[in-house]
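Methods — Computational structure assignment.
A single polypeptide chain was analysed. Its primary sequence is given first, followed by the predicted tertiary structure written as structure tokens.
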Amino acid sequence: MSSCTDLLNLNEKLLFKELKKSLPKGAKETRNIIEIRDDILYVWNADTYSILILDIAATREKTNEDVTYQSLHLTDPPIFEVTHLVINELVTQLILWGNLGIVVVELPKRWGKDSAFKGGRNTISCISHHLDGFGSHLATNEIRKARWHPGSINHSHLVVLTSQNTFHLYECLIGETPTLLKTWKVGPTPSISPSKIPSFASLGEVAVDFDFSSPCVQPESDKDVEVDKVKWNQIEWPILVLRGNGDIFIVKGDILKSRSSTPVVLGSLSMYPPAVDNYGIDCCSIMCIQTTPPIVVIADCSGKIYHAILLADDFEDEEKKTWSQYGSTYSLHTPDVALYVYECVEMELGLFFNDDDKKYTCPVHLHKDKDNTSRYFCSHNAGIHVVNLPMISQLEEYRDANEENLDLYLPSLQNQSNSQYLVCTRTKHTVSDDATPILGLGLLQEPCVLISLLYTGVVVNLSIADFNYLPKIEYTKPVNSSSKKVTKESFDVYIKQFLRHESSQPITMLGLRQNLTARESLELLYRATTIFRSQHFVRHDKVREEIVKKVRTLKALKNHQLKELEYLIQMKKELQQNAEKLAERYEDIKDNQEDLAQRAQEVLRLVNLKEPSLSPVERAEAEEMKLIENKVKEFSVRLEQLKKKANKQTLNSVESPNTNGQKKEIVFKEKQVETIKSNLLQIGKDISELVSRTKHLEEEVL
């Protein structure tokens, strides 16, 4: 049976039941042994030294049924305590790291119906490698942070920060042993000193965290490179390094290009406006949201979080203008960028604390939301917070605005960031020795569900709603106007401004060991009631009034639009009737026009026939016909003459008999006979041709 804190009913799954039995009992600091990628949950089991894998998407469909999980057993399991689990972007490798070591694990292939690892086998062996240089015998060289380099082509480069103010770059190729490519310093090496002499660690000069800033293009030969021709090896990823005293350094240079190239350490960065405590004296975490320009989040152990924008340093300071400090093993150069702090968000670490009480302090861990850059999550020993960043959407609008309307989209600080207390694991009455850390935190997307593992072994999964995010409507064609753009605030944004509150009532998960008295329980109930009455119910009543007003306005507008619709329907009927009448008139006019056109054509034909004068073509044909007629007459006369001559010759031959009583024969030669035949044939052809042409001309004339 799922509850409000367990929407997916994960506590009833066999995986988390076994995981609850294997959790370390003496964990005092918040860690993260959970990560979710592609709806697959990965969690470290310290009891069996294995990685448990569960398809979270399947649990949504089978909330009341158990879902089988897979176990990845390592060939070389870690001998140290694992506190973090990090997966690379391609989901081909993951690292298990703690303060005393790192293990790189090669993930197997996925195939089959549900795209499970190795077709769905329950137990799988995975190749794992220990990284050199860390171990229990080197207690002074502990690991502070390990991250996969985002600029690696095959996502196989790992960057590790140690307590010796040293960075280690490893290349972890699949099927090969990881190799150490380079190391470089970002500060002096801390040394064990007498108790009277403060060490670098006590002064806060030890690097505690780092993150990658937005990528930038390296110029070649001091010339700017065109953006369209930028190559992958010309992109560098600056590294922001945070010290415990609040100083921030930046490491520039392409550390992946060659082993011989040495990164340049710049710092410390100037922070504006300047503060006496340098914005925290006990800083613990840093995170860079890769926007344009980047937003840097800095957290300290007191629960304060500073939001700053990383921009070019335009303030010229002659003392910092040309100096560079060189030591025996590291160097510092003057940076060309600075941090501009625009707000501070203070979180509540635990409940029931008054202004006079000593506040609880603990390290705060920052977690990005990859699908929504306008918010991030914080986990600590007192619970989980979510922080919303309205500045992200304002920077995006300013970036996408036209140059003519840039002034209209300048970021405003009126809509400030706010934090919501989601899960609380500690109160003022909790014993200071009792550890209440968060052991794991992961995000399941679409819709967003927060999955967290508490120190008691209980799994809390909550649906997270973003009250500061509205989806953008992308138009197919941009509308360009020379006039200034007038924007109207939507009703959703208007309502969300009323729902935004300064304090929140978290889900309290105190564990079974803490026995609260009746007074403490009443105080807990009174605080929740006060918060709901002062922060929630009042705002909800105001929202209800605004919605009622909006509904009343919409009803009046609806009635008006219905009347307009009736009027338009009547107008439509009249227009249809007029259109039908016009169509009938058009058909009649068209028929009359066609009849008149035929009559005009017939009149033109008759006029042409009765015209007294002939055209030039007709005259030429008439003259040719006359010539042919004269030739026909001439041939007829010649034919008659030939007939007469032939008759005379026949008569003469009959009247004059031969003396011997025989007829006189006329003998012609062969040539004469052939000549006569050819002449007769030619005369016959000419006569037939003239007769046919005469008939043809007679037909044309008629």
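Note: The two ends are 109 Å apart (CA to CA).
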